[in-house]
Structure formats: C-alpha cells, structure tokens
Design goal:
single chain, TIM Barrel, 15 helices, 8 strands
C-alpha cells in the first residue's frame, strides 16, 4: 500500500468560506450554525473526484491521510469561541469524506487554537474526533498568531496538555502552521518552511521529547531547511552537548517527502535516516503547476521517490511501514 501522509482538503465547497466570513462579521454574537451538515454528499464527491481522487488514480497512490486545508485553519483570526466552531465544522467534513471514501482517505483533525489561549482548550475537540469519529492524528499549529510567534515555544509547559492527551490516545501531530500576517514572510514559501525548521530546532534543543518519549511529530515539507544544513545541526548538537541529531529524532520526529524536485528528495534520503521519512505529497496543495524541466507536476513526489532506486524493503518502509508506525490508529 502507498500511503500519502500529507493531504489537505483544499477543494472544499464555497459554503465554508461564506460561513467563516459570517463569523468575522459578528464575532460578538457568533453561533455554531450548521454548515458542515448543510453541505451535501454530492458536493463533497464533486469537490474530490476531479482533484484528489483523480490524482490518486493517476499517480498510483492508495490512501491519503487527510486533514483540513492548512491555510483555512487561520487561528489568528476569529475568536476563541469562533475557532471552536470552525474546527468542529472542518473536522466534521473530514469525517464525512472518510466515511464516503474509506479506501481513499483517513482522517486527521485541526485544533481550535487561538492566540494567547492555552491549548488545553483543544482537549475536548481532540477527544471528540479521536474517540467518537475515529481520527488518527492532529495538526498542531506552533504559531497560531499568524507569523508573529508570540505564543510559547513547543518545549514550553504551555503545550503539555496537548502532549499528555496525544500520549494517552496514541496519536501523532503534524506540526503545521497556517497563514501569516507578517509581511516579511510569504505564507507557503517562507512561513511554512520557517516553522518547520523552528519546530525541528525546538525539539533538538530541549528535553520535551525526553519528557514525552512516546510522542511522534511529523515535520512537513521535508523538514524545511533541516536536511540541507544537517551538518550544521549535528555540529551544534556536538558543540553544545545536546543529544545527537539522529538519536534525538529516532522514534520521535519524522519528515515527509513534500519536496518538489528530484535533487531535494535525493538530499533528504542521503542525510535523514530512512526510519524517519514518510511518503507525502500535499496534493492538492501549495504548488499545483507542471515543472517545465520534467513535464510533470511539481507535487508528484511519488515519481521522485520511485527514481531513488530503493530496495523493495525500503520502498515498503517509506510508502507504508513508517506511516503505520507513526499512526498506530491507522488500521487499514
């Protein structure tokens, strides 16, 4: 089985954005509404059949671990209450999709985060989506402030309620930011990759993974700049008496293959242990065009992995085995 660990529902019906704009228009009187119930099954099918499902068939992947659109999380907008409703509706849609297409998608949820609000407010939604809806993981935004990083770092006790619940329920988290309002940072070209590297360094320089040794985190987009500067981080760990990089990430931190050219994938596999790499494409996502140098879509990452010349055992590990290790609730 070829499992894509990183997929977002980027083709959601327009009613969701209409609902969100209505929230913004009257935050003082925000109500739950019924948007995730009102969108029909036919609308969901129509939104997927010509996009994610079509590309699964064309590219030869079997299953996508599917979560809400990352940019739509927009935790810096709304209010604490509005974002609780927003997360609930998005997660309900993901659940419905996975019920409609159980052989194509497995559910991962977004959290109702809001700047300055302790993430313990996310526990109810985590319990709901895992215990009631069968979700197998969560997306955790390390910067719900939208590019300003004013909430505590990932090693701070601020995050411990989420970590404790993750450990209890045996679910991983993909560390994934959303939009940015900081004009210095393009959101998919800079902010996403900044966050990937920031998360990696916060794990490397702290004891949070020792405190929570069973937790598993996925750093998307190939780990940002981490693989390219692997020697720098190995050297920093050595100079500062931190846990060596390979030892620190072992069984705890994983990178996906959302790297959109062959040289980048080649580098990822040369420097990062294969035990820590999960196949992912993020389609349909940030980069949707065709690479004129190859004639194929940039985000057709299976093509790059296939070109590596991996052994059958290594292919199975990257395409399936590691995903099952990181997502123990995935049972298909």
């Amino acid at each position: 089985m070829i499992i894509d660990c990183h997929g977002h529902y980027t083709t959601v019906p327009a009613e969701m954005q209409t609902y969100r704009e209505a929230q913004f228009a009257d935050l003082a009187n925000v109500s739950r509404g019924s948007v995730s119930e009102d969108i029909t099954d036919d609308q969901l099918r129509e939104s997927l059949e010509g996009a994610q499902i079509k590309l699964q068939r064309e590219r030869g992947t079997d299953m996508t671990i599917f979560s809400p659109r990352a940019s739509a999380m927009a935790h810096h907008l709304g209010s604490e209450k509005a974002n609780v409703y927003w997360a609930e509706h998005w997660n309900n849609l993901i659940y419905r999709i996975c019920q409609l297409y159980p052989d194509n998608f497995a559910p991962v949820g977004m959290l109702p985060q809001f700047p300055g609000v302790n993430p313990k407010n996310c526990i109810d939604e985590i319990e709901r989506i895992v215990n009631e809806l069968g979700f197998i993981g969560i997306n955790l935004n390390p910067d719900p402030t939208g590019g300003w990083w004013t909430d505590p770092p990932l090693f701070d006790e601020w995050w411990y309620p989420v970590y404790e619940k993750m450990a209890e329920l045996q679910i991983p988290a993909m560390v994934h930011v959303s939009q940015t309002t900081n004009k210095h940072f393009h959101f998919t070209g800079t902010h996403y990759l900044n966050a990937d590297l920031t998360a990696f360094m916060q794990f490397l320089t702290s004891d949070v993974l020792d405190r929570f040794p069973t937790l598993k985190f996925i750093i998307p987009h190939g780990g940002g700049a981490a693989p390219y500067h692997w020697g720098r981080y190995r050297g920093l760990a050595q100079d500062n008496n931190w846990t060596p990089v390979a030892e620190r990430i072992k069984d705890s931190v994983y990178f996906d293959t959302c790297v959109y050219h062959q040289p980048g994938i080649d580098l990822l596999f040369k420097v990062v242990p294969k035990d820590n790499i999960l196949f992912g494409s993020e389609m349909v996502g940030a980069v949707r065009g065709i690479d004129p140098e190859t004639g194929f879509n940039y985000d057709d990452t299976k093509r790059y992995v296939d070109a590596l010349g991996l052994s059958d055992a290594e292919r199975t590990q990257v395409y399936e085995g590691n995903v099952r290790t990181v997502f123990p609730r995935f049972k298909r």
